[in-house]
Amino acid sequence: MRVAVTGASGFVGGVVVELLLARGHDVLALSRRPVPPRPGLVHRPWDLTTGPLADPPEVDVVVHAAAHVDEWDPWPVHRAVTVDGTGAVLTTWPRARIVLVSSCSVYPLRAPRRPRHHFSEDVAPSRRPLSAYSRAKAAQERVVLDREGTVVLRPHAVHGPGDPTLLPRLARARRGGRLVCPGGPDTLVHLTDVRLVAQAVAAACEIPCGTAVLNVADAAPLRLAAVAAGVAIANRWPERPLFTGSLAAWTAALALEGPARLLRASSPPVLTAYAVSHLAVSRVFDTTLLRERLGVEPGPTDLSRWRPAPTADADGASDDSHP
């Protein structure tokens, strides 16, 4: 099968490319930065903000893993890369099947009319997204779902070697011998191994299942206390966890984020509302449809792999690390 992968030099895109090649597919890797040459792989540089790709080769499936992931950047940047860039992808391949790597960040904080922390795919995206990133991912989904046969995959808090987003945030939270955790020890955190995302992508390429939206998450959520302990052990951090509780975390995030935005700070504060939503709010994602439609069985979370990679390559404008 001929598969094009956007965001191929990024955290998620790179793992997807490796698995597709291992399964014997011919891969067209698309990204702003080069990727290592391998048998079966062709790389073409492409900045999605420049519009449709000139003279594109024919492909059977397009895996669209490209998005702007820096939640602190303003909406016009996210719109140009994530939303308008997706339009460029669809224009480039008007007949190819689309597999979109989206994000569970499109969901609201609470699931209505059900246990408040349980999310299945019939929960509508939030009308009040916490960040420009979440807003752009929801808009991106609307664009691709107009094409019949599209599969939208929604991972949450993607982890693994080279994670460019969540692990650096946790590393910045080390203060005075304590690992400050924004939430309570019993908060349920549902993570997604980057290898599971790649498995879901490969299955969506190989198994036509009609138009579908599917959650992608590890077999079971973990208590925040277990996440903090596991990450600390994996990275040899000596700090003891300090749990702030949900209310304190939200209060601190709003107090820090408001002034930073007013001052147009170039980098986000230690806590933002979007970051807190990943660790201070219990959220469990139903993966029944992932198993039924694609035959992908999530495994347990392996926190021992959640550490920096020696040559981690995070392509900030062409990769989705899906928080």
Automatic annotation (TrEMBL):
Tell me the ranges covered by the NAD-dependent epimerase/dehydratase domain, including all copies.
Answer: 3-206
The segment annotated Disordered runs over 300-323
Membrane spanning residue stretches: none
Report what the protein is called.
NAD(P)-dependent oxidoreductase
